[in-house]
Amino acid sequence: MVSQASRKNLLKVRVMDFITSTAVLPLLLGCLGIFGLVQLLQWIRMKAYLRKAVVVITGATSGLGKECAKVFYAAGAKLVLCGRNGEALEELTRELTTSSATKVQTHKPYTVTFDLEDPGAIVAAAAEILQCFGHVDILVNNAGISYRGAIMDTTLDVDKRVMETNYFGPVALTKALLPSMIRRRQGHVVAVSSVQGKISVPFRSAYAASKHATQAFFDCLRAEMEQYEIEVTVISPGYIHTNLSLNAITADGSRYGVMDKTTAQGRSPVEVAQNVLAAVGKKKKDVILADLLPSLAIYLRTLAPGLFFSLMASRARKERKAKNS
Ligand SMILES: NC(=O)c1ccc[n+]([C@@H]2O[C@H](COP(=O)([O-])OP(=O)(O)OC[C@H]3O[C@@H](n4cnc5c(N)ncnc54)[C@H](OP(=O)(O)O)[C@@H]3O)[C@@H](O)[C@H]2O)c1
To answer: What does the pLDDT look like over 246-298, one tens digit per residue?
Structure first.
């Protein structure tokens, strides 16, 4: 009787014989070589695309925007850093220009200060942005604000504020910069959305709604801009360890001021910024940067909506109970 171990060994020997005695080995090596070559070409194209590109980043004073500024700067991009806090933008510019951790030629960034809640300021800011380097290659709509609250307690003003910052502001800035991109038949618009732009979580209504609207608008834009060769990338991260929950507004418009456990345990903004750089460099259309569970939840929402809704209702019950206890 042949033992199980020797049967396994025999199988291994036969498999190895098959691989080495036929064309399988050269074929495997050839595939690996082609794969490596494609990756290398992609990498070279990405580097060339980002080097000297004029990149506008909103919300550059903090979190993901700040880290994006660092990675795009190191890639050789010509930056226009935007935010509400001029001093913080200047401080970041100093930090970037005194760092020496890059081999490519770098460029001193410009800063433009404006509030996305102010439509008039956005039009003026767009003109100022265009004056910096004469055009814009890549617009990264990153700035955003989060929200925590129950729908029934939340004033309509709070819903509007979140929509102004996360949706109408980026839409207005994009519309103000698009004519120049269309004239050049060149440009790339990036929207930093969220997993909550694909699924809605209880007690985040205004935020999830603003990010769903963002996803919808920029998906339409992608289709409409194809004729001008303008790229559109929507990026949907899961939790990132930034000040987003601290800066979130509550049902009455006051600052939430709490570092949520989910946010604290989120991905590092440095890692997410590198993912953003790669997604933009590869001109990806729609990217989810999340762990397995949130990614699965997105599919569950489409494939088994009933189950998804039950899970969200149970989450709402639990959160309400925790708040009342
Ligand atoms: N952190 C997460 O877990 C997470 C997950 C998914 C998606 N995101 C998205 O990632 C993006 C960046 O957020 P973050 O996590 O880096 O949060 P953050 O640290 O709070 O940074 C938010 C940035 O947006 C700017 N901003 C807020 N309101 C603005 C306004 N009215 N006008 C102009 N700028 C404004 C802030 O500028 P000031 O310094 O002036 O306040 C700040 O630079 C947001 O779109 C957010 O929705 C975050």
So the answer is: 999 999 999 999 999 999 999 999 999 999 999 999 999 999 999 999 999 99
d(CA 124, CA 218): 22
Burial zone of 278 (CB within 10 Å; 0-12 exposed, 13-18 middle, 19+ buried): middle
For the chain, what percent of residues have pLDDT higher than 90? 83
Give the pLDDT score at 258: 95
Residue to mutate, 247, 255, 260, 287, ligand 1, most ligand atoms under 8 Å from C-beta = 247
Alpha-carbon span 318 to 313, nearest angstrom: 9
Identify the bridge partners of residue 74 per DSSP, sorted by sequence position.
none
Question: And the tokens for 236?
Answer: 């949907």
Tokens 């639990």 sit at which residue? 318
3-class DSSP state for residue 83? strand
Helix (H, G, I), strand (E, B) or coil at 187: strand
Ligand 1 centroid vs 62 CA: distance in angstroms?
7
Q: What is the pLDDT of residue 83?
A: 98
Helix 63-74 / helix 86-98 crossing angle, nearest 10 deg: 30
| β-strands 138-141, 78-83 pairing | unpaired
Cα distance between residue 102 and residue 40, in whole Å: 20
Active site (annotated) includes residue 207: yes
CA distance 20 to 134: 59
Token couple for 88: 């913080």
Name all domains of the chain by residue range, CATH numbers in brackets. 49-290 (3.40.50.720), 293-325 (no CATH)
Determine the atom of ligand 1 nearest the C-alpha atom of 85. Answer: 40
